[in-house]
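Render this sequence as a predicted structure.
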Amino acid sequence: MVVAPGTPPPAVLQLFFAPYQSEGNGTAALKEFIGGVEESLTGGGQATLKRISSRPRTVGGIKGTERLYNLTLNANGAVVRLQYWYGLSKRNLLSVQFTTGPATSASQKTVFDKTLSSLKIK
């Protein structure tokens, strides 16, 4: 995890992988993985997740999905912006998460793209 200081909330970048042995239907496995992440983000009803956009994106030779969300905490109405890339390699479920405030700066927006373009996935 990388945290960039600045006006709260700071930008947070997280890279995640979990071992996974593909059994042929990668599309279904990726869809299930994304659904699980999205469900976990709501914290059992403590937050509301709104998908802003979704598009296919290949990173490091791995086909995946990029999604942009707004996450609203139900207790106080605070909003954070989440940008995710999800992928499935031959051996791992993968995600890259970038969290910022709702007013993401131009320099923060480029961090996500630079990070994805620098990934070397085996």
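Summary. The first strand starts at residue 2 and ends at 4. DSSP finds two helices and six strands in the chain.
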